[in-house]
Amino acid sequence: TKYVFAFTEGDKDKKDLLGGKGANLAEMMKLGIPVPPGFTITTEACRAYLAQGSSPDTLGVEVTTALRQMEADMGKKLGDPDDLLLLSVRSGAKFSMPGMMETVLNIGLNDQSVEGLARKSGNPRFAWDSYRRLIQMFGKTVLDIDGDYFADALDAAKDKRGVTQDTELDVDALKELVDVYKDIVERETGVPFPQTPREQMDKAIEAVFRSWNTDRAKIYRRRERIPHDLGTAVNVQAMVFGNMGDKSGTGVCFTRDPSTGHTGVYGDYLVNAQGEDVVAGIRNTLPLDALKELDEKSYNELMANLHTLETHYRDMCDIEFTVEEGKLWLLQTRVGKRTASAAFRIASQLVEERLITRDEALTRVNGEQLTQLLFPQFDDEAEKITLTKGMAASPGAAVGEIVFNNAEAVARTKAGADVILVRRETNPDDLEGMVVASGILTARGGKTSHAAVVARGMGRCCVVGAEELYVDESTETVTIRGSDRVLKAGDVIAIDGTSGYVYLGDVPVTPSPVSIYIEEGLEAGIAAAHDDETKELVAAVDLLLTHADKRARLKVRANADAPEDVARARKFGATGIGLCRTEHMFLGDRRQLIETVILAETPEEQNAAFEALSPLQRGDFVGILEAMDGLPTTIRLIDPPLHEFLPDITDLTVKIAVKEATGVEVTEKERKLLKAVREQHEQNPMLGLRGVRLGLKIRGLFGLQIRAIAEAAADRIEAGGDPRPEIMVPLVGSVRELQIIREDAEEIIAAVEESRGVTLNIQIGAMIELPRAAMTAHSLTEESDFFSFGTNDLTQTAWGFSRDDVESTFFNEYFDLGVFGVSPFESIDVRGVGKLVAVGVEKARSVKPDIKCGVCGEHGGDPQSIHFFDAVGLDYVSCSPFRVPVARLEAGRAAV
Ligand code: ADP
Ligand code: MG
Ligand code: MG
Q1: 320 lines ligand 1 (CB under 6 A)
Q2: What is this structure's pTM?
Q3: Which residues of 839-874 are buried (b: 16+ CB within 10 A; e: fewer)?
Q4: Which domains are delineated in the chain?
Q5: Catalytic residue flag (residue 253)
């Protein structure tokens, strides 16, 4: 196996093997963009290392060969004080995981070569600064030493000299600092800082391999649904130096604004700094325009390269660059992460610029992003007390209690509070707090700081660089400079990730213009937008959603069971109801009647209860059929076990026991109830008397519902409507079950048709939620006009999981052990449960080629699942009303 590829050997399509960073570095080389030479160690080598705990045997040799080639190209040698080649060792997985894994810069420096570098560069300050950075990064990432030791020593050095910036430390100070750092290494590890360049490099490579499995990397992958078994590639690259003085610097930029999607280059620049300083928010950065003033030649060259990259990738790119003494180098590029609104605006801009087609534009946005745009925003009209303004880093409106660290963030959210994580700046250790917080606020850093990048990725509201804030993490207070206001942990603030404003106290929120567009159409949406950017956004969403509807093969229905929800679903673009549950219609006041049905000792008693329920049910259905007039409406007959309508067994037993013990009379009804509750009690209600089984045991119950549906349809027809009810029988396992219900139903429907003098076109179909039903779908087809896969229950029955029991007991372990990356209840388990769906569809269609098949259940609103359902040829997905726009977009995306 070949484990090492020079940058000249790769290209952007080899991300599996070379990781995103390595593949794109190679692509830039091909485009003739100035990239420092280097090579990539494959993800395969990382996987081998992680599996066996050591690098593959041949890796060392391959690295030597590649390194020598690099040395020959550069005319320099690793660690040679006279012609010094220094290296960076950089992580880079297939999917970008910003700040999650490790990178070590300035590899190759030691006590001798630092002198050589000082001499050769004529810049001793730079040489010693680089050396102290190496020891610091190497100590922290490779040797696992607590980074605070180094940070504290750095602060102490600055204090001692009365300076505030790293750049103000002179050579002597840096030499002293190097000694302190070396002492820290020796004290913490028992051995001196390694002086051999090759040893430094090899250790750094292995540390990058290992960084794949840090806790924070795992948390990040779980969130982003990145598989745990990919591993990272490692890029070894010649160093270029942004910390050589005032003619050098380093920066990050985007070809369009990643938070708003504004056209035009956007970026941050730091003079006399090395790589990580920008992202770490150590100093406040300058806007990119500053580079134009400082070094117009490098600036122009950078602009030309950005243009080349955007044209080549046909998308917004982000770039890391460094200027070394007036010479520009690009160190990284990738298709840039962006906020949801930027994604939509950029996609529609690129369509307008004729750089991509509408179909391609659909691939540039996704349902999750659309969800984010539907979030409410702060009410413009509301009175607000402005505390300060920072940079808008990730949009949204968040209100919550101030917390200063992960522990508080987790504890307060567990207690039900919304929290805002407030930090001077964030670093990867803050991830846990960022995940649970409603919003993130930092005092330092730019739009490309850690906080901003991570928050955008998570769709979390974030404001950064609010410089007026003085955050004292030790006393847990925030002071606003120039005012005497001091905020403590627990105080409520509101942050606006779209404008950067920070407000005191609770601020009311209003619906987003995009959600108004979804509900009321383009004109209303645009009217609700307060600025041109938002108007453009609404138009962009319309462009893409309209195209998605045009392209989609899958139809989108909604799960809804109250007329208001049905109406809302229709506004959101649902083309029918895929699942109208009926059980809640037996709750509240009606519970009493169901109790009577269960307790009835004679058919007469039972029928009386049915008679009482009948008009009520009919009323429910009239409302729903009216709201969905002209569109198919699948009504599921009652599904849950009867005990759900009865009092809890323990409560009732206790109540009666207490009565007996205190001599209070126990009524006849209570005794009967207890008896019934005992009889109905099941060990595994999920697998017990429910669905069609219940319908067969208490025939009148389904009969009541079927009659109510038929009567309601007749009512609607008489009122001039166009009702399209479909009756769905839950939990069918055998064709005989369905046949019996069907015969009953046909009889009832015929009777209603006759008595009302109307023709009712009511389809009857089975809900497929048992493996047996899926495997025998061809025979069920004989009695079924349609099928709907109930994938929630199908997941439970295929895995033998009871959802309520398993999710809280062992799913976390299952994620950690890699049994699944994402819960099978969230995203369809393609290989198992999905296979049952595929087989069911295939068997059904082998008998009735155009039998309508759909899916209802949570998966109907899950993007990945939707793509799967499209692929297996389902006719529709049904999801909750709020997911309908998302499902429409995804159905369109699945078709292109
Ligand atoms: P991440 O994946 O976290 O972005 P990188 O590997 O890109 O980490 O490196 C971290 C920082 O170090 C970046 O700012 C990058 O530009 C800088 N850097 C990496 N390699 C070099 C190099 N060869 N010369 C100069 N700076 C470098
Ligand atoms: Mg980077
Ligand atoms: Mg079910």
Answers
A1: yes
A2: 0.79
A3: ebbebbbeeeeebbbbbbbbbbbbbbbbbbbbebeb
A4: 67-238 (1.20.80.30), 249-335 (3.30.470.20), 340-371+513-548 (no CATH), 375-510 (3.50.30.10), 552-582+627-638+722-895 (3.20.20.60)
A5: no
